[in-house]
Each structure stands twice: as structure tokens, then as C-alpha cells.
Amino acid sequence: MKGKGLLSSISREAPVLIAGPTASGKSALAMELAARDGRVIVNADALQVYSCWRVLTARPSAAEEAVLPHALYGHVGRDQPYSAGHWLREAVALLDRPVVIVGGTGLYFMALVEGLAEIPPIPPEVRAEADALRAADFPAMVAGLDPATAARIDLANPARVQRAWEVLRATGRGLADWQAATGAPALPLSRAEALVVRPEVDWLNARIDARFDAMMAAGALEEVRAELPFWDPARPSSRAIGAPELVAHLRGQLPLAEAAAAARLASRQYAKRQRTWFRARMGGWRGIALP
């Protein structure tokens, strides 16, 4: 992370936000800042909130959590509803102390610095209808969005499309309309030190592959095996990168080498989506070029 020069340039007083793609080294920087300034490390990764995953999501180890204070890691059950709104309420409650907020879920950061629309909960029957439509005819789900929302969201992201479809179905208002009525942000960008890691692609891909191999050596397959009795691919917690591929192996559908190769590819594709999103939405953040 470019060492002491980078650290010395980062505020000791303001809340620090560190966004970046998977495996880019942002957690290591957060730990350095927490140690230097006495900050709490606050998770902003939508998959590291789940208690069922530690190795596969690269959640901080138990030893790391014992050395420095961490928050919003591994505190949500596998089948427990958890949204950007849940995260925002919990994160805001921590802003009364020095924090470094780190992760790869851009929506969490935007909710914090731009505000989040107060959309009513989605009724279970609408969620069930959406689940069925997404599985049977995803293009029809895309076609059913209002034009303003369709122009704004990532139409290649099924979770985002389903969320937008559910909001329109349940409320009669498009997600873009709700977002246009968003209130003031809890932490305006002007009051934070906002950093986004922008790694060189080949360097990052090599790190992604090496980290997945390290995860496998650290017990990722055993972690997935423990989840098999509870596995439901429709759950948000099941979106852990590499989990579906390793489940397929454990069910005899893929040799381990093929499952591992597919998981590495899924991780690289996920990082590409993250980089694209950060470029589009975080132009005002300070970029950190790596290596």
C-alpha cells in the first residue's frame, strides 16, 4: 500500500472510508490506520456480515479481531434479512467514535455519503413472486422496470434488478423515483476522507488467484461443506464468491480443479464489476493506484 507516505497523507481526525475491489489490500490499510489512530474497523462488505462465512469471504481472522476493534463483521445469520438500510443504521450508530469504514459494497458507501431512500419493506408475497419470475424469465423482469430505474441500475446484476422490480411492484413507484426523494446523508463526503483503491488489473487478478488458493489451504472447502445442509442458492448469503462452485463440487457435479478454476474466474469477474461501479460512482473520491 505504498507505506508510510500514504499513511501520513491520510487524516487522523476525519472518518476514513476505504472502498476497493476484492483482494486489493484495502483491509490491510484499514488495519494500519486503526492501529495508528485508535479507530474501529467497520465492515462495508455485504458478504462479510454473515456469520456462516469467514474464510471464503476473507473476513478478518479471529486473531485480527482480537488485536483491533472490528464492527459489523459476522453478526448476521445466514437466513436473516439484511439490507443497505440495516447496514446504514448500524454504521451511523458507530460514527460517535473514530472509525475506518472499509469494504467493497459500493451501495453501502453511497447510502452513507449520499443518503438512502426510506422504501417500505417488501411484502413476502411480492418477494415470492419476484423470486419465481427471476428464475423463470429474467428478461421479463428487466422489461418490467420503469424506464428511469432501468437507465440507472446495472441490468446485468440480477439482485439489483429484482430489488428494483420488487419496489415498483410493492409501492407503485420506481426505485429511481424513491431515490430522487432521498434525505440528507448521515456523513456527507465533505466531512470524510474518502479513498478508493484503483489497482492495475493484471496485478489484482494475480492476487485474486493467490488468495483463493490460500483460502482453500485455510479450510474454505470445509467451510462450504458445513453450509451444505442449509444451502439455499436464493439467499443473499449464498452469493459468497466461490460458494456455488464449491457446492457443485461437493455434490459431485464438478471435479475440484474445475470448481476452483470457476471460483477464481467468478472472483475476477466480480472485481471487474466492482471496478466499473467505482469508476462510475466514486469520481469524487481520492484514488489510490496500485501497485
First-to-last CA distance: 7 Å
What is the CATH class of the largest domain? Alpha Beta
CATH architecture of the largest domain: 3-Layer(aba) Sandwich
Tally of separate domains: 3
Unreliable residue stretches:
none
Structural class: alpha/beta
**CATH topology group of the largest domain:** Rossmann fold
User: What is the share of helical residues?
Assistant: 40-55%
Characterize the structure shown.
- With 291 residues, the protein is α/β, with parallel strands linked by helices.
- It has three domains: 3-116 and 190-199 and 278-290, 3-Layer(aba) Sandwich (Rossmann fold); 124-180, Orthogonal Bundle (Histone, subunit A), CATH 1.10.20.140; 201-274, Orthogonal Bundle (Helix Hairpins).
- 49% of the residues lie in helices and 9% in strands.
- It is built from 14 helices and six strands.
- A six-stranded parallel β-sheet has the order 3-2-4-1-5-6.
- Helix 4 crosses helix 5 and helix 13 (243-250) runs antiparallel to helix 14 (256-281).
- The longest helix has 26 residues, at 256-281.
- The chain is globular.
- The model has no long low-confidence stretch (mean pLDDT 96).
